[in-house]
Design a protein that fits this description.
The complex is a heterodimer of chains A (about 120) and B (about 120). Chain A has about 120 residues and is mostly beta strands. Chain A contains no helices and twelve strands. In chain B, about 0% of the residues lie in helices and about 55% in strands. The chains are: A mainly beta (about 120), B mainly beta (about 120). The interface between A and B is medium-sized, with 23 and 24 residues.
Chain lengths: ~120, ~120
């Protein structure tokens, strides 16, 4: 079975400061990993995804994430946040074997950017 | 380019009433997903379709819930009878075939906010 843990439910940060949102996954097989963002009263939007290749993945809005297989992590980072980055961020995983198409989401991390 | 379109955006209904949520996936996508989001349980996959055929409905909570996809451009999620614990945001999403398991991006609609009183 696959699972995702987002340890931080809320992360407050000042504008222009760097931020890291943590994500750890559990799966006994190879995985694809995704980060989605949800702005208030909206659906989820893909930020970036790791399928294979380079472990450093760059996404939209200046975000990037690093896949670390040994630590089973896929942390999301941004060197300098903006007020408009205030939103909820979801990490998601899907195992590549075992059949099915069940993308499992973490519980989300609320990023609050303050002036 | 139109995204995934859901209706209604908001619905308030009384316990026991039938609720029908509608979804139009992105044109050309052949996988469709229904998710439910609540504070307690987060995002849960209820059911997904490939080429209009239900593939996995193991996430459907109980028999009160049913989903159909009569054609490639329309799907419904029905709750009958509705209960207060069904209050949640219901998201429809679509992707090219097999969605995330093929590395394809899943595109979400803006959600249907359901309140059952």
């Amino acid at each position: 079975a696959q699972s995702v843990t987002q340890l931080d439910s809320q992360v407050p940060v000042f504008e222009e400061a760097p931020v890291e949102l943590r994500c750890n996954y559990s799966s006994s097989v190879s995985v694809y990993l995704f980060w989605y963002v949800q702005y208030p009263n909206q659906g989820l939007q893909l930020l970036l995804k790791y399928l294979s290749g380079s472990t450093l993945v760059k996404g939209i809005n200046g975000f990037e994430a690093e896949f670390n297989k040994s630590q089973t992590s896929f942390h999301l980072r941004k060197p300098s946040v903006h007020i408009s980055d205030t939103a909820e961020y979801f990490c998601a995983v899907i195992s590549l074997t075992g059949g099915g198409n069940k993308l499992t989401f973490g519980t989300g991390t609320q990023l609050k950017v303050e002036l | 380019d139109a995204g995934v379109i859901q209706s209604p955006r908001h619905e308030v209904t009384e316990m026991g009433q039938e609720v029908t949520l509608r979804c139009k996936p992105i044109s050309g996508h052949n996988s469709l997903f229904w998710y439910r989001q609540t504070m307690m349980r987060g995002l849960e996959l209820l059911i997904y379709f490939n080429n209009n055929v239900p593939i996995d409905d193991s996430g459907m909570p109980e028999d009160r819930f049913s989903a159909k996809m009569p054609n490639a451009s329309f799907s419904t999620l029905k709750i009958q009878p509705s209960e207060p614990r069904d209050s949640a945001v219901y998201f429809c999403a679509s992707s090219f075939k097999e969605g995330a398991s093929s590395g394809n991006t899943i595109y979400f609609g803006e959600g249907s906010w359901l309140t059952v009183v």
